[in-house]
Amino acid sequence: MGNGEAPARQNILRFGEFELDLSRQTLSRRGTRLKLQKQPCQILALLIQRAPKVVSRDEIRQQVWGNEAYIDVERSIYFCIRHIRGVLLDNAATPRFIETLPREGYRFIAALEGIVPEERSDHSSVSPAREEITDVAVRPSRHRWAIVSIALAAMLILAAVAFWIPRRDVQVRVSGISPVTSYPGDEREPSLSPDGRQVAFSWNGEDAQRHIYVKLLGEERPLRLTQSPADDSFPAWSPDGKQIAFMRRRTDSESEIMLIPSIGGPERILRRVQVGHFVSGSGRMMAWSADGKWLCFTSELGPSSRHALFLLSLDSGSVRPLFARSSSPEGDSSPAFSPDGRWLAFARYSSPFNSKIFVQRVTTKLEPVGEPQLVLNTSGNSTTPVWLSDSKRILFLDHGGERIMQAQIGGAAKLVYIASGDLGGLTLDGLGSRLIASRRLDDNDIWTLPLNGLRVAGEAKRLVYSTASESQPRFSPDGRLLAFGSNRSGASEVWLADSDGQNPRQLTHIGAYIAGYPRWSPDSTFLVFHARRPDEAQVYAIRVQDGVTHQITRERPGFTRPIFSFNGKAICMTETRPEGPMVSQVSAAGGTPQPLWSGCCAEEAPGRGLLLYGKFEQPGIYGRSLSGDALKNAEIRLVKDAMPLDGGFEPVDDGIYYIGYTPTGQPRAFRFYSFASGQSLDIAPTPPNYGGDLAVTPDRRRLAYTTEARGNQDLIQLDLN
C-alpha cells in the first residue's frame, strides 16, 4: 500500500455502527451521512482523541471556541453534547459512547477501530497535510531543504497577511455581561445616549400601557418621559443628546412619530405613519442622520401593505422615500446611519421573519449611490444593525436574536456572541465599548388533557418539557409516537417521544433556522415538515426508522405547513406568495407543486374527500370537496371562531377539534365541530398561557397543546474589546 493512503486511513475512526472522518469532519451510520454541526463534530473528535481521559468543559471551550466569541459555556456545551447523543442514539443515563462526570467533564468510553491521529499540544486533529510533511521529513536532505524553503515563504506570506488583516477588520469580542434592568414586565428597544451614559427604552411595567423611560447607567430608578394612554415604543436618541424620537401606536396600523426632550417636557407630533405588525419585530423603526437633520423611518408604501424607508426633514417637515424603487416583497426596516454619515445599514424582508442585512452608500443629501450591498453569511432572520466608530463595520442580530454578528462593508459576517435567550434591539455607545440589548428566556411546554368522549376526564399534565421550548405536537396514526418541534439541541429541529412523552430523541439534524410543524404519513413511517435553510421555507420528508431525509419542494417563494393526504400519495401545503398564501399540492414523491386556491394550513378530513383550510387574517375553518374538479367546487365555511394559523385544529372522521377564539382574537376554549349537526360545543377552557397548537390521540382519549412561559424582557450590557 502506498504512503499516500495512510493519512486518509488514519483519519477514519469506527465505533459501534458509526464512522467519523476527522479530515472531512463528517459522521456516518452504516454508510448514511448524518447531520452533525461543526461544533458538536469538533467536540466528538476531541473526546475521541483524548479517550479514555476526561475532557473538562474549559478544555472543550478553548479547543472549539477559543476566544473568538463570548458564550454561555454551560448552555452551549450542554446543547452540543445533547446534539451528539441524539445523533449517536446515546443515552446519558446508560451511555454507550459519552459519559458525563459531574463537575469534571465528559469522557468517550466506546471501543475504537482504526488509528487515532497523534495528539498535538492543542489536542486538535492532525491534518493530512501535516502527516505528509512529517513523512517527507525523513527523505534526503535536498527535499528537506525544499520543504523548509516553502515553509519559510509561506510563513512570510502569512505574516504579511496577519499584519494587514487586523487593520482592515478587527474582530470585536464580548468580554463581559451585566444586567441593566430587572423590572417586572418587558423592558425593550434600548437606545444609548451619544455619551453612552444613559439608555432610553420602552417599558410596560407600571400600568397596562408601554411608555418611554430614560435610565442613567449604574442607577436603579428610571425617569418616565411619556404619559399617553397609547403604546409608546422604539425610542431613538438624537446625535446631540437633547431629544428622543419615538413611535406612538394609535391603532393596529396607525402610528405617530413623536419628539420629546430627553429630560422630559412637551411632546410634538412629527409625522403620522402606517406600520404593520410584522416589522415591529425588526428591533428598530427609525434612525437619526449623523448631522441630526433627518429621521429615517419605516412606513407602509401606499395601500400595498409593503413597507419602505422614508426620510423626514426636521427643518422643513418634508418627507421623501429613500429608494425610488425596491424589489423587496415585504419591505425595509431597522435603519442605522454610520457615524460619518456616508452609509446606511438596514434589514430587507422577503417575507415575515425572513430578513437580510444590506448596506447602502449615500451622498451628503442622503441619496443612494449604486445598489445596496448584501451582507453574506447570515441565517435569514437578521435585524438591528449598529455601526462601530470607524464607519466601516457593523454589528447586528442574527438567527432570530440568538447571535451577534460582525461584518465589514463588502465582507461576510463573522460570529461575535452566542446568546442564552433571544436578544433584541441592539444599541452601541459612541466609543464602541458597550452594547445594550433586551434579552428574554422563553420556555414553552407541551401539555395533555385526558378526555372521555367530548368531556374532560381529569387534570391537565405536562407531557413534554425541558428548559428549552417544545411545541407543534402531533401523534402518530398508530398511536405509538409523538412528533414535536424543539430547540433543546441548540437549533430548531423535529423530535420524537413515546406517546406518553417519555424517551424524547432528536429526529432531524437539518441545521435550519426553523424546522418544524411535523405531520405523519397514514402508515406512521414518514413525517413531513418545513424548514428554512436559511431563506425561503421548503418541505422535507423524513423516514422515521433511519432518519433518511428527502427534500420535496425547491421552488420559490417557498412552502410551509405540509401534511399528507388521507391516502398518503400527495402532500398539501401553504405556498407563501407575496400577494397572499395559497393552498398547494405536490406528489409525495416530489415534482412540481400545483396551486389550488387562496388559503393556508390545509388538512384533509379523514374519509370525507374534504379539504379543510384557513385564510390569512380571516377567522374560520373553510372546506372544499375534492371530488371531480376541486377548483370548481364551492367553498363552504364550517367554523367561524377558529384561527388555523396557530395550528389549532385537527379533523377526525366525524368532526373537527379546534381552538375557539373570542371576537377580539383571544383563545377561549377547546371545541369540537360535528359534521353531522353542523354545530360546535365546548370541551374545556383554554389555559391562560395557551401557546398555540392542538393534537388528539388516535383513540381520542387525550388532547395535547402548547403552553407559553414567556420570560420577561430585561436589558443587559455587553462589554466589548
Major sheet: arrangement of strands: 5-28-27-26-25
CATH 4th-level superfamily of the largest domain:
TolB, C-terminal domain
Task: Give the overall average pLDDT.
Answer: 84
Which percent band covers the strand fraction?
Answer: 35-45%
Category by helix and strand content: mainly beta
Helix content: 10-25%
CATH-derived topology of the largest domain: Neuraminidase
Strand runs, count: 56
Distance between the termini: 52 Å
Shape: globular
Task: Sketch the major β-sheet.
Answer: 5 strands, mixed
CATH top level assignment of the largest domain: Mainly Beta
**Total domain modules:** 3
- Given as residue ranges, the uncertain stretches (5+ residues, pLDDT < 50) are 1-9, 115-149, 155-167
Write the CATH architecture name of the largest domain.
6 Propeller
Radius of gyration over C-alpha positions, nearest whole angstrom = 28 Å
Tally of alpha and pi helices: 6
